[in-house]
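User: Structure with LARABZUK, tokens only please.
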Amino acid sequence: MSEIKEVAAEVSEKDALKVKEWEVGMLQDEVAASQGIRIRRRPPTGPPLHYVGPFEFRIQNEGNTPRNILEEIVWHKDVEVAQMKEKMPLPSLKRALDNAPPVRDFLGALKAANARTGLPGLIAEVKKASPSRGVLRENFDPVEIAKAYEKGGAACLSVLTDQKYFQGGFENLEKIRNSGVQCPLLCKEFVIDAWQIYYARTKGADAILLVAAILPDLDIRYMTKICKLLGLTALVEVHDEKEMDRVLGIEGIELIGINNRNLETFEVDISNTRNLLQGERWQKIQEKGIIVVGESGLFTPSDIAYVQEAGVKAVLVGESIVKQSDPTKGITELFGKDISC
Ligand SMILES: O=C(O)c1ccccc1NCC(=O)[C@H](O)[C@H](O)COP(=O)(O)O
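Assistant:
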């Protein structure tokens, strides 16, 4: 009987901890909203299923419906990361870092490619599917694609690790890293917890994406510091003026990605890159020596020329090259010339 009491006490202590975590999450949302972040970290009207102990049900209501796909991804990621952390707590993850392959210089590779070709350095994306475009490539062999990209002159690769929405995985990152491909690798994830940065490093990442639309300033500050500590490059992604201004106000950021895709509506407009690189913003970027990456919706040599003219020194491209039966040729067609030599 006393054994049952002990177990009950342990369980309720665990539950109390979860509730505490939950309350902190609620505060996080308030801070985020004050910075113009529309994406909420969790459903506002109650904890997700795994937080409610033995009562595995929740009354559905409007507040528990994500407002858009990005919010849905974040809510799902919140549950996924909590489960992963339970399986591998941070101390054991930190120990696993000792066996991680050495970090490669992601930013250096982009700068070198830009200097060598006079064109934006290419981050070529290994992506099977996306919420906006569905399945992009049925016959998807991540290592084969990565090798084809490297052969075509990609400076770096971006590897989707989200399983549910992009049909990616950390095993793809690991396989590419162990395949002999030399390009530095960006872990393309929806990072909401520093734990994911450590995890990505153990799987061979050299860089990681931090999306300003889902991360308050304090998180970006803290996470870029962790990246530095681990030797990783942080690619901080923005989509609008507000996010750009927030990120330009944070010290130590070296690489900013401008996403031409609105992740809440899927609308793509490459003039977004040009619009965010004007006037005082452009001056600040130059003063700080920040490298800018143009992301999404780039299909032709004139698209590349357009964003280069706007000021980018790198581009991140997925759909237009991953869909090609020969992705090496796809890169040559995208740039209008062979960029491999
Ligand atoms: O692409 C989506 O549908 C999407 C939805 C929600 C969050 C992120 C999403 N995409 C990430 C990206 O923006 C792209 O993978 C990346 O920039 C490459 O874009 P593209 O060259 O247009 O494939």
